[in-house]
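Can you give me the bound-state structure? Components:
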Amino acid sequence: MIQWEGEGIVLSVRPHGESSAIVQVFTEAQGRHAGVVRGGASRKMTPVLQPGAQVAVEWQARLEDHIGSFRVEPVRSRAGLLSDRAGLAGLTAICGLLRECLPEREAHGALYRRTGVLLDAMVAGHRWDAAYVLWELDLLGELGFGLDLSRCAVTGQTQELAYVSPKSGRAVSRGGAGEWADRLLPNPAFLGLRDLEPPPDQLRDGLSLTGHFIRQWLVPAFGRAGLADERDRLAAVLTRQVGSGASSTGASG
Amino acid sequence: MSDGAGKEIEQLIALMAKLPGLGPRSARRAVLTMIKKRRLLLDPLAQAMTEVAATARECVECGNIGTSDLCDICTSPKRDQTILCIVEDVSDLWAMERAQVFSGRYHVLGGVLSALDGIGPDELKLPKLETRVAQGQIKEAILALGATVDGQTTAHYLADRLEPLGITVTTLAQGVPVGGELDYLDDGTISAALRARKSL
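Here's the bound-state model for the whole set.
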């Protein structure tokens, strides 16, 4: 019998038979991993197995390539986000992107830790919109689609990197852009500085930038129609909040 | 595996076993009971099923299941036409009716948004809902959807669509159930209950 145990974030739950569920969790050591939870569709387990919830899991199977079964214990619910419009849209986008894009059974420890920190910040009501954009940037990098924002693709300089090429994902300096500037994507400064409280225009540019590469690279690579829908819904909510001047994304209704 | 019963009885057992809550063994027991109580159970059941099969249909207005084009709720003059309760499924509508606490009308969405199951806004009965609201009689829409990620995502989406039409959009409260003890509640429910606290 093969088995492991650890802590993870619930990504999806699908009914299996009358009372069981096939659950996908994202763990630090095992990455995205699926298993059957006996009684997972019961009234007792439904609140525990909501996307975003932190759970302790014990997986076991007879052979490595079997789907296996999980024993699940709740660690921390993130149900507080259900009544928060932006928070819920963020939670859905995060779980959707991880569920659809992460390869199964491949560890992404750093991404797991960042995801946990981001979700906890959302539940705590801290400002998390910029952290979300940075998380998407990290996700693109983890999946092999990282943007190179460190130096200009044209001149090689490391200053005034105002743009990003929509094709290569490499930074372009103001001087290097020349007459092509209007065809390039703005590179908001907070991405390089990893600033968590950027001004509204930079946040909008950040959402557009990562959104562009999710649509251009991730959607074709992972191929599911509607992959970007949840993410687009979140971008719409955040953009509306930025437009209305509500910078805190933790306490909106 | 054959039970030694006739082919028709075997087929009935196989069909019953597909019903929720029943398996082959319990279906066999149910069929045997019906056959033994033929006049009391089997004949009336067969007749009722024939009638339901011939008449059951979806209400063209709200999506409830009844035996005519417009269900009893939609045709009742006693129902408040200014309040609309939006539910995910017919079973939720029936649960609300069992409680006998709501005197308005309903709209059955036919599901909730779920990227995992490929259910987007186009798969729900939204155009009919917007048409009903746009007719102008409805003043309040109560979103009675599940306290799940998909249910509440749908609720926020509907609120965005309905509020511009000039009606009040409300949602059911979430918190401690009747008979519930805090010690046995999950932390999500406690957190929702604390946020929805009210003065006594």
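A couple of observations. Chain A touches chain B through 30 residues (CB under 8 Å). Chain A has two domains: 2-77, 80-149+187-244.
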